[in-house]
Specification:
By secondary structure, the protein is mostly beta strands. 3% of the residues lie in helices and 42% in strands. It is elongated.
Length: 768
């Protein structure tokens, strides 16, 4: 234990930021959790114009190596250091740092010895100097202490305090503490001066090693010390001006239990609020982000989960390592990798000379922002070694994407129906050689020349900006231009509210409007999320068509199923289709042939739906059960489509599974004024219909004059109510209130919108 007052230089800490990439390593120590290979780069230390990365692999023969990246993705060795066999230990951490702020970085490494008392045992901290073409042999670091320090380092981090280079060295069990030290180069000799030990009580006991990262919190540097003891994530935050006790302690649950890829933890200010966050990759390929503030934290899972960005096998091929590094740059992780933080414009630290930060990252980042109408063209064979053998998609590409075999290019035209982030995932197999396969059949020996191929996986990301639509000022229409009675159209989708918030983007032109609303289900813990799009189709001019798109801005990870509903109001034909289909049998139902009283209903066609349903007719109502409807509850997902046919037609579809991805619609008006509506509803991951209901609503007409030659008394008209006999009643669990979205009168809802009710069409996307 060290005693004494806290040095004054901790009162003015600054943690400058810089943009320099990553380190490739592998840790196989008992009790340590690290990715088999970790990547750090790129530089041009030897100033030959080629990009270099540092590899730290300790899987079989522990070694450090610096390699250059050739244009074809392969590596050319520049420098290598192998741990001698008689050292009896492991290198546990290695990072580049400019210790003396002279513009030339040094390589620091911590060494965990099995027996530090043995003759010839190396120092626990090694320093490698760059000589212009390679790193020199390691120089042991001297200790400015009366007695040798008993060090068992499992890692370190560093930051600059005024003009002093400060190390935070992490000790392994049984001590489990972080030692703050000053590292100097006194006449070329590296020395460490112990300053203060930090021993968080929260992490005093545990089996996994501690980790430490400096965090810049609006100009104040604080040190986060943390550990993942499954399933508990433990963190203590220290203000370096008052080191006696942490200013914040946190315990969080991360399920399912797993371990932290400790060497892959990143620091970044992702939302630009001035507070650094922690990116926490786990061994199960899930990646969390911890937002750390002086008095609180917030943990959420990131889109980097299940991406394979943080796990490389130690025996990975050169091209695989290079490609993984490119993916990290494209994923936006490049700026989060603070390798030489003192290289920023700190008061006591000159900037690193530009020669040490090369332009590889800029060469690898492609233009990825498009507007509707732009064409994306991308050469898939750029810099790949060998001859083309095969191309295939790894995920469903955006609609309209083409792979052109003649030019080996991807081509896609962005349109207004696909806005927000889009991803193209594909695999290219390249032929790198041939082999002779010899066999034998009934006729004798056979010989076959088969290709030797290598597979390359790619993800190309782009972002399509939503179109900017100008709407003329709304003017009151003259009374003599009223086109006729209103023709209300409405699509409503009700699904259980997802656990994670989703952002939706609405793109459309008048007369469409959108409403999003939460609806708690009485008697249950379920909350439904309703998405409604409505319009008065009488406002659409003849021989015209209008469309809208309401879609999630993120790309679903699972398969998307599309329900298409086409209602031809002139022919009174309604077609429902599922893609991908649940059945290949085309089915139809004509209600009037079954019951002449149902002549007002359209003819129904079902494509892709299960064949196991039996239509049933009631007075002014139809139902098509696909499964046992006794399980239908108030929380069952529902799609409702109201069409302005004559009489008005309502279609209600109850289904299980699925989360809303998008609603897209199009209305076509013929020259004679008749209309056709096309509505697409996309859900993920599955759509299983339970029950389809259809009804019509006949208008109530006033009685005409009683003929003079009749003896019958005039009959008062009764309001038309769809009678539901008890023996044919619909399931009482189907709650009609699910459809009770507030909908203003059709003749008025286009004239105004109420705050929190209908959103104006030029409103920003609403977060659900």
């Amino acid at each position: 234990m060290f005693s004494g007052k806290i040095p004054r230089f901790f009162s003015s800490l600054s943690f400058p930021r810089c943009v320099i990439p990553v380190l490739l390593w592998s840790v196989f120590l008992n009790g340590l959790s690290g990715a088999p290979l970790h990547v750090d780069g790129t530089w041009d230390l030897d100033q030959d114009g080629a990009s270099e990365i540092l590899l730290f692999d300790q899987s079989a023969a522990p070694q450090l190596s610096l390699v250059e990246i050739n244009p074809d993705g392969h590596h050319l060795p520049v420098w290598q250091f192998t741990v001698p066999e008689d050292w009896l230990g492991w290198i546990t951490d290695a990072q580049l740092a400019d210790v003396d702020a002279d513009g030339t970085p040094e390589l620091l490494a911590t060494f965990l010895s099995l027996d530090p008392t043995l003759d010839g045992s190396p120092s626990w901290l090694l320093l490698f100097r760059w000589n212009g073409t390679a790193f020199d042999d390691p120089v042991p670091v001297l200790e400015d202490t009366p007695e040798p320090l008993a060090m068992r380092p499992v890692g370190f981090t560093y930051f600059r305090t005024q003009d002093r280079f400060t190390l935070a060295v992490i000790q392994s069990a049984p001590e489990r503490k972080v030692l703050l030290m000053i590292l100097t180069l006194d006449q070329g000799e590296p020395r460490v001066i112990p300053v203060y030990p930090l021993e968080p009580e929260l992490t005093a006991n545990g089996v996994n090693p501690l980790q430490a990262r400096p965090l810049n919190q609006q100009g104040t540097t604080r040190l986060a010390i943390f550990s993942l003891e499954p399933p508990r994530f433990l963190l203590s935050l220290y203000d370096l001006t008052t080191l006696t006790a942490p200013v914040l302690t946190v315990q969080l649950d991360i399920q399912p239990p797993t371990r932290l890829l400790r060497n892959e933890v990143l620091v970044r200010d992702s939302n630009g609020d001035g507070y650094d966050d922690l990116i926490l990759p786990l061994e199960n390929d899930r990646v969390f982000q911890l937002y750390v503030y002086p008095d609180s934290v917030h943990l959420e899972e990131t889109a980097f989960s299940n991406s394979g960005l943080f796990a490389l096998a130690s025996a990975s091929a050169d091209t695989v390592i290079t490609h993984n590094f490119i993916r990290r740059i494209e994923a936006g992780l490049y700026e989060s990798l603070n390798l030489l933080p003192e290289a920023a414009a700190a008061p006591f630290s000159p900037e690193i000379r530009p020669v040490y930060v090369d332009s590889l990252a800029q060469q690898l980042v492609y233009p990825d922002t498009l507007e509707p109408g732009d064409t994306l063209r991308y050469a898939v064979l750029d810099s790949l070694p060998g001859q083309f053998h095969q191309f295939r998609w790894l995920d469903i590409p955006p609609p309209g994407t083409l792979f052109v075999p003649d030019s080996f290019r991807l081509e896609w035209v962005a349109d207004s129906t696909t806005t927000g982030p889009v991803t193209f995932s594909y695999q290219v197999d390249m032929k790198i050689g041939e082999r002779l396969i010899e066999s034998e059949d009934l006729m004798g020996p056979t010989h076959l020349v088969a290709p030797i191929t290598t597979a390359h996986h790619f993800q190309l990301h782009a972002f399509v900006k939503p179109p900017v639509v100008w709407f003329p000022p709304e003017e009151a229409a003259p009374e003599d231009t009223v086109s006729g009675p209103p023709e209300p159209y409405r699509i409503l989708v009700l699904t259980p509210k997802p656990a994670e918030e989703k952002r939706y983007l609405f793109d459309g032109i008048p007369p469409f409007s959108v409403l999003v609303k939460e609806m708690p289900v009485e008697g249950s813990m379920v909350t439904l999320l309703g998405h409604q799009i409505a319009a008065d189709l009488s406002a659409v001019q003849r021989d015209k068509q209008v469309s809208f798109s309401y879609a999630r801005t993120d790309t679903p990870h699972s398969q998307v199923q599309t329900l298409t509903i086409i209602h031809d109001l002139e022919a009174n034909v309604l077609t429902l289709s599922l893609e991908p289909p649940l059945d290949t049998v085309m089915q139809s139902y004509q209600p009037e042939l079954v019951n002449p009283d149902l002549y007002d209903f359209p003819n129904y066609f079902f494509q892709g739906f299960p064949a196991s349903f039996t239509p049933d007719s009631l007075a002014h109502a139809l139902q098509f059960p696909f499964t046992d409807t006794s399980a239908v509850t108030g929380s069952t997902s529902t799609i409702t489509l109201e069409s302005p046919s004559s009489p008005a037609h309502t279609l209600r579809i109850l289904f299980t599974g699925g989360e809303l991805v998008a609603i897209r619609g199009e209305v076509r008006v013929r020259e004679n004024g008749m209309k056709k509506t096309i509505t697409d509803i996309e859900v993920t991951p599955a759509f299983q219909p339970v029950l389809i209901q259809a009804s019509v609503k006949k208008p109530v007409t006033a009685p005409g004059p009683t003929p003079a030659d009749t003896l019958a008394a005039p009959v008062e008209p009764e309001p038309v109510q769809p009678p539901v006999p008890e023996e044919e009643s619909l399931p009482d669990t189907v709650i009609q209130s699910l459809l009770e979205f507030p909908l203003p009168a059709p003749e008025t809802f286009l004239k105004r919108w109420e705050p929190g009710f209908f959103l104006p069409l030029n409103r920003l996307p609403s977060k659900v």
